[in-house]
Structure formats: C-alpha cells, structure tokens
Amino acid sequence: MRAAVPASAECGAMLGLWLLLWGSLALRGRADTAFLHRAPDGAGHCTYSFTVASPVEAACPEAAGGVPELRAELAALAARLSRLESRERAAGGAGPGGAREPQQVSGAVRLEAAYGELLRAKARLEEEKGRLEREKEELGRRLESSAQEITRLRAGRCPPGRDGPGRDTLRAPGKAPRWEPQPLTFQELQSERTEVPVSRLLEETALGRPGGADSGCGELVWVGEPVVFGRADSIAGKYGVWMKDPEPVPPFTRDTTWRVDAVGTEVRQLFQYEEAEQLARGYPAKVHILPRPMESTGAVIYRGGLFFQPRHSRSVARYDLRGETVTAEREIPGAGYHGQYPYSWGGYTDIDLAVDETGLWVIYSTESARGAIVLSKLDPQTLEIRRTWETNIRKRGVANSFLICGTLYTVSSYSAPNATINFAYDTATGASRALSIPFENRFRYLSMLDYNPSERQLFAWDSFNMVTYPVRLSQA
Length: 476
Known about the structure:
alpha+beta; five-stranded antiparallel sheet; four-stranded antiparallel sheet; 5 helices; elongated
C-alpha cells in the first residue's frame, strides 16, 4: 500500500497518527514480515510504501529487516507528534481546540480594559490640548491688542521732536521725571517744579531728615554681593550682631568695630576691635561686660553708645562705651517682646534698633497695630520718642529690615539664596510700595541686617559669617 503526503507536512500531527494506526494494523497481520519504504517522488511529496509478506514471501531473507525499520520510523513520528502538541499548548491551546486557562482569560480582559482606558485618556488629552491652543490664540490676540493700544497712547502723548523720538511722560502725578542721558553729542535736560508745603520742610528739618542737595540721600536701587569680613568660631556665633559707629566719639573712630554673639540666655559680652581686620583675626582689643543681658540681634552703635533691648523687657537702653554704664533706659509703649512680634526667622527679634542719615530709630509692633511694623524716631540721649509711624507691612512676614534716608526697607527671606528687598515705607509721605531688588543670602541664615550711613554699606550676620553689602542710591 502507498500514501503520498506533502513534504512540508511530513511532521504533521495527523500524518503521524495515521502512520501509527496503519503500522499497528500491519504488525497485527504479520508483524515479522511487514516493513516500510519512503522515497521522494520529485513533486515535493514523500511516498510511503508498506509491504506485508504473503505466506510464500515470508521466507524471503530481505523481509526480516523490515520490522525494525518500521518500528524506528513509528517511534520518530511519535516523538514529533509529542513535540507538536507541546508547542500547541505553549502557544495558548491547553487542550483540544486551544482552550485557554482562566488566568489567561482574566489577563486578556484586564489588558483590553487598560487599553480602553488609555484610549479614553488620549482623547481627554487631545481635548485639553485643543483648549490650551485656543486659549493661547486668544491671549496672543489680547497681547497684540494691548501693544497696539500702548503704541497709540505713546503716539498721542509723546510726539516725536526734532532731534529724535519723544520721551514717555506717562508717570505718576507729582513724581519728578527721571533724567536719562542721551548720546554725548547732545543731551537734553528736563525739569519740573514741584510745590512742597513749608510745614513739611520744617517738620523734616526738626526730625533731622536731610533736606539739602549735599545730603547724598536717595532711594535704594541696588544691593551688591556680600563680602565676608569674619567668621564666628563657636556655636554662640550662629547668629549675632556686628557694628561700626557712623558718628563716633573719641577715643573711638569709624574703624572701631564691635561684635556680640547673641546665642544664649545671658548675652552680656560686647567685643571691641580697633579695626575690621582685627575682627577677621578674632582677637578683640577689649571685652565689655554689660550690666544687663541683652536680647535678640537688634542692637546698634551710635554716637558713643550701644543701644540694645534688655532681656525680657519692652525697653530700650543706652550703654555708654566710655563710662561703661547704662545712661538711659525707656520703655516702648505697647511694644511686643520675647517672641510676640519677631521677624520671620525668630530669635526674639521683636524690637530692632536702626541708624540712618537722620538718626536713631526703633522698629517693633504692637497689639493695636495687629502685627504690622511700627517705626519710632528716638532721641539718642534720652531715648524719648519724637514721632511714630504705623506701616501696613506685617513684621512676621519679612526676614529683616533697615532704614536709609528715612525710608524703611524689608527683606523677603532669611534663608532663600535669591531673596529680594521687597517693600519700602517712606516716612516723609507715609506711603509704602512693593520692590524687587535682588538680595543674596549666601550662607542661608540671615539673622541681622543694618545700614551704616557713613560707609554706605549694609552690615549683616549670615550663619556665623559677618558680611557687608555695597548699596547704590538713586540721585535726586
């Protein structure tokens, strides 16, 4: 008997099964004389020939070798069939017809659900993208319209002159125009007359506010990078205060430098140095022991005296540097103390003293001011309050403050490396305004900041480091 099968399917499962059945029948007939022949027919098929010897042919010698050959072939086909079944199960068919396991079905359902969710999320993102693009187009149209309106206003109010385009005169009422230099070949000067009540001039003169052209006063417009002069060598110097007297009295000079390490409950030591370089080396010329411990980092040196807040009090005291005694002490009415209204960094900085071109100031807050900064001008000898201003700047909302030419300036943060001078309050007008002058906290812990009018610098204590900042003022 012969059977022709395509060569590409010779390892197929059905062929192997058929051959096994046929071989079994042949073997049952005459197992000792049946044998198999296989040969290609030239058309891509294999021809299998099964021969069963008749009773007469059983004696032929060549028939004896057919049975072992048939058995070997059937064993090879059975092995192929087993491999095919294994591959089928691995591809997803765990039984007849390729039925899947329950875990596989559950996994497929989850994948389909996740795919559907991804499609829905994609649709939502595309919708959001379209909305943002529409908003972008609308914003672009508005900006273009605003730019056209500004151009129209400038063309109407600032007509060009003979020597070039006109200047923008849109400025706040009553504010003097700013002089801007033109090329060296030609400069145009403009001036405006501003009427100032005589009462204000007299009042400012009485308070010591500089009013002459040679005073050098102006608005703060720039603060430079910090310069380190010295570093504290113990934990007591984590924060503190260091100072120079802008108006010293003999035997002290403007080079005489003073320092207080403010960490501790009994802060009494005032270190005296002949110059700043001696401060950098860390060897004081003298150590003053204060008769009363001081609180916070709000002390200043002015006209031969140390002005400070005695611990656990709302008072301000004057310590005479030559006589080494307390010569004056006065309570600041209603002032918060010992943590009631400090700056944002803490340190019991409720009462902060300051010096500028106009004299001695105290910065604090009261319950009636609800935490807003209050300024008072003090007599440097008697500590009597001459005048008080209440601002709208929250004291806990700023890191520190100082005064220049009768204007209070505040710092936005004591730890941010790129802080700003963020507010200014002018005592002459009683008005505050927002600023954004860059200010660097190089060592990330600003605990003291004061202005020295004789050196035109800010003195600061920044995490063990005593530093100065150069400043620039606008010229009136």
